């Protein structure tokens, strides 16, 4: 439409109208509403059966040896409810009655006196709120002529209610009696007479219809002005495989890419860095797969190409029962060389050390060995941690998730994992340790103060075809818009580092 931003105009109108409605309904009018409605107001005129005769005779007795004139008796049922959008608290009632400080509201019956009252039904309101000391009661005034039921300051959540049953005696007037009236003042709220008709009001219907028209108009305009996907989009199917540590970040990046580039499909197989390298090596189509992992690919995969993506912080973690919160790098070396076997030797509790290790080929394990252990550690026979009820001196896991689970489960356990992954989640309780007094995290890595870190890399078999989904997504992750996603998961992108030489796998 000649560049005129009609979509923006419609959006502004919709927001303005809905905002004005919100302010009127929830700010000016008030979100707390105490509603009431009369559900029954019927006269008692005759005994309907012998079965009720005794009860009615007792009702007609006025306590002074006589009886009430049953032609002037009536039974009224009034529903009191929270009809607003916020809970009503006991201190929201501001009715001023010094003689009755516990009373929050009155039910008034003009030209009728109250000869009995009771709570007939409650929804979410305990009956003991209406006990003897609650303030509830009945009384009658001569001038003006009113019967009154005093109601206590009852807290009501949304849609909670209670019902008041009153037996009344007509004291003046003829014909239809005046309807009962609820008298109450509510802080930041109002009293309203409700009905059983649940249909929305005409104003609400009009507002909803208007906003629906705006939304439909915006949708039509969006369809008519839809453009092709961005030029950096590619179509096809891509397998993303490799490290379990970086899996959450790459998975979210893939979701965001696919949301924009709708003809791209991703299949995730994050089972470990080594598995990812093997999958890329064996793939028949190098342009259909990307692997992500920690550290150098090593000499076993000479045909693979690696591109640094980001620097990741790793953490030493322990079972909370070890009694330690900080280790030195020298102590970590002593643990993995087998010279420390009980936590009391490091100032902790008298608990045997259980080393939870990643399997050989893990990128996270390679980062530990190169950054902290100086490639000098004790090699243990393979024992799986999965399913162990009690730890031995050492066991191994395959994934980051299994590492966190094993350390949380096995008394005396110590392990290591990507820092973001070891935040307490899903009920797992592990203790993340400082190293040489430095708390792990991206800021410490960026400042060069934290020793346990590694480089996350992208692996391909040669260069993928330039227009392929593999090439486009690789650019998206390495130098593109996925930067914010990586940062969200605690990674420091290579572009952020002042010293680019730091962004390479540990050697």
UniProtKB/TrEMBL annotation:
Recorded superkingdom: Bacteria
InterPro entries found in the cross-reference section: PBP_domain, Phosphate_ABC_transporter
Residues annotated as domain PBP: 229-478
One of the Pfam families matching this protein, by short name: PBP_like_2
Keyword Protease: no
Presence of keyword Signal: yes
SUPFAM superfamilies: Periplasmic binding protein-like II
Keywords for the protein's UniProt record, in alphabetical order: Signal
Name listed for the protein in its UniProt record: Substrate-binding domain-containing protein
């Amino acid at each position: 439409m000649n560049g005129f931003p009609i979509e923006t105009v419609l959006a502004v109108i919709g927001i303005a109208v809905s905002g004005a409605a919100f302010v009127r309904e929830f700010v000016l009018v008030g979100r707390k509403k105490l509603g009431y409605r009369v559900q029954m107001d019927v006269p008692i005129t005759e005994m309907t059966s012998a079965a009720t005769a005794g009860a009615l005779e007792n009702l007609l007795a006025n306590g002074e040896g006589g009886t009430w004139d049953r032609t002037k008796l009536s039974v009224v049922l009034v529903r009191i409810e929270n009809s607003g959008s916020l809970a009503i608290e006991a201190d929201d009632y501001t009715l001023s009655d010094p003689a009755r400080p516990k009373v929050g509201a009155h039910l008034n019956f003009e030209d009728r006196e109250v000869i009995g009252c009771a709570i007939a039904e409650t929804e979410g309101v305990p009956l003991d709120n209406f006990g003897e000391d609650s303030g509830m009661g009945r009384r009658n005034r001569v001038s003006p002529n009113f019967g009154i039921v005093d109601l206590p300051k009852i807290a009501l959540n949304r849609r909670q209610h209670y019902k008041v049953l009153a037996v009344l005696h007509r004291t003046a007037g003829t014909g239809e009696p005046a309807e009962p009236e609820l008298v109450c003042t509510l802080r930041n709220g109002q009293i309203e007479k409700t009905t059983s008709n649940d249909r929305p009001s005409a104003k609400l219907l009009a507002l909803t219809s208007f906003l629906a028209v705006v939304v439909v108009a915006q949708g039509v305009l969006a369809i008519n002005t839809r453009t092709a996907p961005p030029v950096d989009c590619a179509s096809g199917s891509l397998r993303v495989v490799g490290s379990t540590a970086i899996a959450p970040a790459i998975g979210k990046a893939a979701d965001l890419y696919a949301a924009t580039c709708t003809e791209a499909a991703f299949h995730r197989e994050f089972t470990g860095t080594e598995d990812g390298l093997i999958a890329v090596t064996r793939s028949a189509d190098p342009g259909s797969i990307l692997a992500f992992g920690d550290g150098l690919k090593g000499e076993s995969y000479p045909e693979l190409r690696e591109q640094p993506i980001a620097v990741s912080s790793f953490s030493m973690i322990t079972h909370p029962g070890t009694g330690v919160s900080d280790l030195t790098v020298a102590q970590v070396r002593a643990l993995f060389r087998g010279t420390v076997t009980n936590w009391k030797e490091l100032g902790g509790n008298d608990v045997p050390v259980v080393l939870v290790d990643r399997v050989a080929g893990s990128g996270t394990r390679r980062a530990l060995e190169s950054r902290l252990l100086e490639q000098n550690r004790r090699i243990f026979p393979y024992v799986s941690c999965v399913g162990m009820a009690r730890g031995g001196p050492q066991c191994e896991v395959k994934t980051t998730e299994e590492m966190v689970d094993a350390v949380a489960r096995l008394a005396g356990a110590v392990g290591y994992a990507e820092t973001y992954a070891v935040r307490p989640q899903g009920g797992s309780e592990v203790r993340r340790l400082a190293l040489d007094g430095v708390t792990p995290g991206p800021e410490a890595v960026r400042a060069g103060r934290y020793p346990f870190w590694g480089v996350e890399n992208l692996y391909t078999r040669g260069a993928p075809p330039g227009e392929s989904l593999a090439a486009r997504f690789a650019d998206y992750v390495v130098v593109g818009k996925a930067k914010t996603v990586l940062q969200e998961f605690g990674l420091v992108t290579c572009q952020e580092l002042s010293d680019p030489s730091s962004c390479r796998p540990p050697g």
